[in-house]
Structures are given as C-alpha cells and as structure tokens.
Amino acid sequence: MASSFSCKKWNGGPSNDPPSRVSKRIALEARLLSHPLLQVIHDHTHAVRSGRVRCELEICPRCSQAPDVFKIHERRKRTFRVVVERLVHCVSSLLVRWKCGLCKQTFSECPAFALPYKRYVREVVLDFGRFYLNDDSTSYRKAVRVEGLPVFYDGEPDGVVDERVLSASTLQRWLGFLGRLEHTLRSALRLIRSASPRCDLFRRAQPVVSWKYRSLERRRRLQVGLSLMVAEASFQSLFATSIFPGLATHERWT
Ligand SMILES: [Zn+2]
User: Most buried one in 194, 224, 237, 241, CB count within 10 A?
Assistant: First the structure.
C-alpha cells in the first residue's frame, strides 16, 4: 500500500540497501500514509476501483439534461503530483469517465483534489500561486522554494532524490491557467455578494506590483489570479466548499 504513494514501486521487502536508508524510507512512507491529502487521493482511488463513487454533476455537460443516473463508462489511470515537505511525490489514482443515461455520450469528471489538465493537485497549485501573488517581493524563482530551498522530486526507493526540481516556469503556467478563469471569478463574486450583501470584495481592485509583469495581458491574468485567491477564502467561509472544481466546472474552466 505504501508503494502507491511514490513514483517508483517500493516493496518494503528484503533489500541490499544499508539499514539507515531503509529505516529513513520507512519513516518517510509512514509520514506519507498519514498525510491528509494523500489519504484523500487513496480513498478516491479505492472508491473508484470498488465502484463506490458517484458523479457530482446533476446536468449532463453533453446534452444539458438531467438523467436519472450517470454510469461508470471507463476508469483511467492517472498520476498526480503532491508536494509534501520538500519533495514532489507522484501518486497513482483513477479517473472516471461517465456515461449519460439519456444521450449515451461520455465525459470525464475532475476529482475534488485535482485541476483539469494539471498533474499537480489543486492544493499545491493554489498554495504556491497564493504565496507568489500575496507577496509583492516574491519572484517565481523564490516562490517555488520551500523555506528557501528547492523542492525536489522523490525519485528512488533507497532515498536517493531525483535531480529534477519544481520549476519557476511551472508556477508561471499555473498562474496563466488561474488568470484565465474570469467567468469563474465573476460567478464566485456574484454568489458571495448574494450570500453576504455587505461584502465589498467585488468593489475592491487587486493591484499587482509592476515588476511582476511586462504586458497588460499578464497584468490582467495576475489580477484575476489574485482576486480568485481572495474570493476563494470568502467562498470557503460562506459556503464551506472551494470554488474548484464545482463552480469552475460549471463555468467550463473559463
Ligand atoms: Zn447527456
């Protein structure tokens, strides 16, 4: 079971590794097992495998009708990346392709911990994005470090770390993705305003320091990203859920 939490399979069986490395690895695997996000992914995988999962959508995205049931059409393997401490862990999971009972067409649904077309899980993208956007003095390069040190990939089962690191360009791409969610932002602000009319979020501009962009388009993207981060906090406290993936899916990730 522990092996499902790392890129390369680790059996925990007899090995030629020095005992210190093995015990370090066992300690790391034990910490990973108790990590809440990894537990969520593991539970999701187990639920999909045993057919105990249901589609969160009520309306079919293909025919816009509400069928009695969406059936599991296919299960697809997918690897997600999670940052724990200063390591990127690759976690295998399953994605469901659903079939509409009315139009018989199929569609995939993004699990709550993931973002569409992103290998890194939602929490990692939002946490690193928020850190960059909220600190005027932080560059992409600084923002992808944890406590000033690079985030490496968890590579070998004997504890040897992969030489790849979480790169500044990856964070730059995440912010480009978040910055394109203008309809999602507008919709979130509308819901926040209806639930809490005294909230002034929608009137407040979210300024981004000028050294962080070279074009008006990039400035707009960063402003949308920053506004989304602020809206996400209010949305969570008002509705006890995230904007992602529910509302963002409803707005077709635009
Ligand atoms: Zn349909």
Answer: 224
62 Cα: distance to centroid of ligand 1 (angstroms): 5
**CA of residue 99 to ligand 1 center, whole Å:** 8
Residue pair 161/150 in contact (Cβ under 8 Å)? The answer is no
217 CB contacts (<8 Å, ≥6 apart)? none
CA–CA dist 122, 103 (Å, integer)? 31
φ, ψ dihedrals at 179, nearest 5°: -70, -15
Distance 44 CA to ligand 1 centre (A): 24
- Rounded to the nearest angstrom, the distance between the alpha carbon of 73 and the centre of ligand 1 is 13
Q: How far is the centre of ligand 1, averaged over its atoms, from the C-alpha of 190 (Å)?
A: 28
Query: H/E/C letters for each residue in the chain?
Result: CHHHHCCCCCCCCCCCCCHHHHHHHHHHHHHHHCCHHHHHHHHHHHHHHCCCCCCCCCCCCCCCCCCCCEEEEEEEEEEEEEEECCEEEEEEEEEEEEEECCCCCEEECCCCCCCCCCCECHHHHHHHHHHHHHCCCCCHHHHCEECCEECEECCCCCCCCCCCECCHHHHHHHHHHHHCCHHHHHHHHHHHHHHCCCCCHHHCCCCCCHHHCCCHHHHHHHHHHHHHHHHHHHHHHHHCCCCCCHHHHHCCCC
- Taking the centre of ligand 1 as the mean of its atom positions, its distance from the CA of residue 248, in whole angstroms, is 20
pLDDT, position 199:
77
Going from the Cα of 161 to the center of ligand 1, the distance in angstroms, rounded, reads: 46
**Lowest-confidence region among 16-20, 120-124, 202-206:** 16-20
